[in-house]
Amino acid sequence: MISDLASNRIHFVGIATVCLVLAVLAGLLLAFGDPLSISLTGSSLKFAIATVACTLPPAIVTALLLFRTNILGSGILQTCLVVWLFIPIYVHIAGWRNLFGPQGWLEIANPLEPSANLVDGWTGVIWLHSLAAFPWAVLLTGIAFGRGPASLEEDARLEASPLAVLLRVTLWRSWDAILVAAAWIVIAVFGEMSVASVCNVRTYAEVVFTGIPLGQSTSETGLTIAPGAIVIIGLVLLAAWLAESMRPREPETETRRPAPLPLGNQRWLWSLLVWLLFLAALGPPIVGLVYKVGITIDQVDGNFVRGWSLVKAIDLTLSSVVVYRPELTWTLAIGATVSLVTTIIALLLSDWATRGRVGAWLVTLFCALLFALPGPIVGLAIAWGTNRPWLAGLAPLVDRSIFAPVLAILTITLPIVTFYYWHAFASQRQLHEMAAIDGSSWWRTWTRIVLPGNLSTIAAGALMAFVLACNDVAASVLVLPAGIDTISRRIFGLLHFGGEDNVAGILLMNLLAVAVLATLLRVLAGRARRSDFSDSLP
């Protein structure tokens, strides 16, 4: 009990310190920032807070039920959750807009703004960001909910119902994980520009993205360096606290993992609610894409009649692979390269992080820095850095190869995969110590014992990097050389023009590929249940 109080006190001090520094940075931004930077930062923060408010409550309830109770079909739901994790953001955008957006099947006007559509403007930004953030919030909180000591819950069950135990014990002991999920959502919303761009909403990342392709500098877009630096510092600080909270730590005492709590007569009700939530979130975009890809328009008696053809839907979906073959080829090349580089670097970083406090701190800060940088800022920085006169000899590498997009996407894949490996290998520290006592060198232990014994974990991390790389738009869109185009960038460009039936076809193929790869990822992660983190991953 004393250790719990001390731990809570440390958490409160850390959170208070972060909040204080963020408040100071906000004051500096208001004092020295230009009006446009202040407005765009405030807009991004508003959307981030609204996304947190819309996402966290249902995510917490879902995580409690999915990870801590015996709801029906939990295995299928967990597989769907992993698939949902890796669905590209543009699939959500296209699916919902094809169904409810402009010229959609069931076009609905925004009741708060009659001139706009329901999935356009600020309502579309909040809704689409919430859909993308929901599975990550469920996973981050669910991992924490599954780590509580079993003894506390067993004692509480003697005096309270399972639902009361979830709220008073499980949820209360994991309050810091909820803040971690909130910080994750805030950083993700700040760095994502594709939703804001399609929904015609101005945010900081969106202005950087739209200005640079037009040949504008930061000064020409109205943005200045100092306010941007303050925003980046604030994001890095928040990401540093996030990474520090997520990095693995050795438990003070051995704790037995809690068993799922039985819901009794309410099991069917809660199971139905979770299933309906998944269907309500994933069903409409799929229906929207299927409707769009099979739509037909025939002229009957001088009138145009809209219909739907299953034959056309199947034919257009399958033929989309041929139509977009060049983009798919470049996407696979970039994804495979990113996966290979990410796996090698992440393995080395995670091993270094498990060896001592200095390595752990440096790896934490490095991952926080990469994760905090908004995608357009990453692309802008790479474009600026590779165009220096003293790097003229590297021009062919930058302008005629996939070097720049690979480098940009690494800022997304490296933090996530590094932390996955770090958690997976953290429990094997004693293995290194025992091997060292027997006279085995670090390299021999790593190559003969650690790597061969964790092939499923390594493969899962590599597959994770591959899917994330193939889905990227924000980081790589500004640095793709002429003649090199990815399927993500092509779809993102076409979505601005309404997303026709051929786009819906390739999106359905994309969704099918993501479902297969995400299911394979869950199988690999299931085989790698040798650590707390991998055991908590669905």
From TrEMBL:
Its main location: membrane. This is ABC transmembrane type-1 domain-containing protein. It is found in: Cell inner membrane. It comes from the Bacteria. It is a multi-pass membrane protein. The keyword Membrane applies. The chain crosses the membrane at residues 12-33, 45-67, 74-93, 126-146, 181-201, 222-243, 268-291, 330-349, 361-382, 402-422, 504-525. PANTHER family: FE(3+)-TRANSPORT SYSTEM PERMEASE PROTEIN FBPB 2, INNER MEMBRANE ABC TRANSPORTER PERMEASE PROTEIN YDCV. Residues 328-525 form the ABC transmembrane type-1 domain. One of its GO terms (biological process) is transmembrane transport. Keywords: Cell inner membrane, Cell membrane, Membrane, Transmembrane, Transmembrane helix, Transport. GO terms for cellular component: plasma membrane. The keyword Magnesium does not apply. CDD domains: TM_PBP2.
